[in-house]
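Co-fold these.
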Amino acid sequence: MTLSLQEKTHILMDCDGVIWKGNQAIPGAKEALENLESLGYQLGFVTNNSSLSRDGFSQKFDSLGFPSEKYVILNSGYGAAVYLRDNKLTKIFMIGEKGLQDELEYQDLTVSENYHQDLQAVCIGWDRKLTWTKLADAMWVILNNNSQFVGTNPDNSFPSVDRLVPGAGAGIAALANACGKDPDIIIGKPNPYLLNLSLKEMNCSDSTRAVFIGDRLSTDILAGINANMDTILVQTGISDYHLKKTILPTYTLDSLAQIDQLI
Ligand SMILES: [Mg+2]
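Predicted complex below.
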């Protein structure tokens, strides 16, 4: 399939595996973004990672040489906070890290790490200090209060420096299994929620004017398809290319550095 960016105005992309890998910028990514920006494209970034707040991500962008102030940056923690706020769920039992807590509190939500009957929702993200007690308390809130069960992102694993480790999806699955109840919503990709939220924040009312670039078929490309966007798969990150027969990106590039082929 062919794709031209001529008729596009907004270019959204994933971060890890697209512009950086771990703590290193992907070769050519910075120049590619500068080029797109000079051509007038609006650039946005959508990551499933909930461990950092948007401020934390901005600092990471800056530290790797990407000028964060020029971009719209959304993560699943922010998306979860907006979802809860918009649904008027303000008293939250949280399992997660500081970045998620910050995002919930930025939306004026009250965050509790103790269970009680006034809590209206459970929000669970990546928590590298997840315990049986936290799961038991969240389970009580879901079953006793009939609370909404909101997960930040479904990623089962996360590539740490030397091995794969459990991701947020592993904790969500454990809680769902214990409760015998699926989450009411998981905000992160492949749900199109974050992509739609990005377009809204970038004042783009037509998703066909946008393209989404990612390295994972099962999350990024599927989210783009779910949001009615053209999609570009780059092959610089985690590959799940065995899914390529069922989840079809509009176009495939080796790397973001080759994006000028489509302009
Ligand atoms: Mg990625």
